[in-house]
Amino acid sequence: MFFWCFPHLQTAVQTQRGAQKMAERSLRETAKSHPRKRKRTKPKTSSKIQQPTSNVREFQGRYVQEHHLGKGGCGVVFAGYRITDHFPVAIKHIPKDKIPIQVTDENGKQVSVELAIMLKLAAEADGSVGTSAPVSLLDWFDFGTELILVQERPVPAVDLYDYIKENGGCLPEEKAKVILKQLVDAAKDLEEKRIFHRDIKSDNILIETGSDVPRVRIIDFGLSCFATERSRFRFFYGTPIHTPPECYWGKKYRPGPTTVWQMGVVLYEALHVGDFNTETFLQKELKFNKHLSPHCRNFLDACLTNAPKKRPTLGDLQLHPWLR
Question: Which of 129, 152, 175 is the endpoint of a domain?
């Protein structure tokens, strides 16, 4: 769950007025779908979210916080469980002074865009926690100096980075295909919801390992934003060594081509020993596995095309022969 925030992050936020207006509209829609009084339901049957509370005792009465899971530039995450049924949860603490991106809600208040996006995903869920690729938000609290996001914690699961290491440092092509197919479908679904994750990488992808077929879950929307196909961004948010070439060269970048580039980065790291590095790639010093099938290599090369306009769309990737 680690991520990096560039030092000019706050300046970047101020330049993205179009995305902010969209976020405000989405927040209003989300607020309408969350009335103030709502019965709590078990996570397997509903993803409705209660209104926030600032009562620490109420939080402690609902959840038990356990061991530390991860720390990033914008928050700390702990494992825990819900007291009523011992349902596993991940509890994310976000200091108010470290929220990287904020939007204005219907009351004119600045709120975390991560929270706004998680609420939007919860409002548009099909009614069952655990059925979507993004992990579900179960509850949230506002303690004044920090936000607490309580999310489902898939068990058993491991992030893709560790999953690859546990499988010898790289995955067989067929196993990588199973993961990439799910990841592309999930990214396409987020795109249709006008959500741009911006930092899809192996650390932010959970792999549920409770069945024969690994299942993909997406986590950490801390650097995400609301965007459309026409949205343009100048300042890069995410992992520096995964910067798409257009951003590396100081040009504006778009959600679709950037996400497709990230699909290529994830696939490269799944099929090769070692991390992907854009600078090394641009210098043509990155080595590729010579034993990949022609369709797989074509998929990888298409995602990692230097010119963003020449990259396929996420819809194109869904129809690629390698994933069929």
Answer: 152
Residue 203 among the catalytic residues: no
The torsion defined by the Cα of 43, 44, 46 and 48, in degrees rounded to 10, comes to 20
What's the token pair of residue 141? Answer: 């609290």
**pLDDT above 80 (res 27):** no
The total domain count for the chain is 2
What is the per-residue pLDDT for 102? 85
Return the HEC string of 203-216.
HHEEEECCCCCCEE
Last residue of a domain, one of 131, 152, 173: 152
User: CATH number, domain at 167?
Assistant: 1.10.510.10
Same domain, 28 and 98: yes
- Are 220 and 310 within one domain? yes
- CA distances to 173, 185, 213, 290 from 182, in Å: 14, 5, 11, 25
Joined tokens for residue 139: 């509850």
**Residue 273: pLDDT over 50:** yes
pLDDT attached to residue 50: 67
Kindly state the tokens that stand for 208. Answer: 């549920």
pLDDT digits (tens, 9 = 90+) for 98-115: 888 888 777 788 889 999
Q: Which of 139, 199, 203, 220 is catalytic?
A: 199
- pLDDT, one tens digit per residue, over 53-84 is 778 999 999 999 999 999 876 889 999 999 99
**3-state DSSP assignment of residue 123:** helix
Residues 174 and 285 grouped into a single domain: yes
Distance, in Å, from the CA atom of 324 to the CA atom of 317, rounded to the nearest integer, reads 10
Residue 274 has pLDDT above 80, yes or no: yes
Q: Are residues 14 and 116 in the same domain?
A: yes
pLDDT for 10 equals: 36
Question: Which residues form the domain of 287?
Answer: 157-323
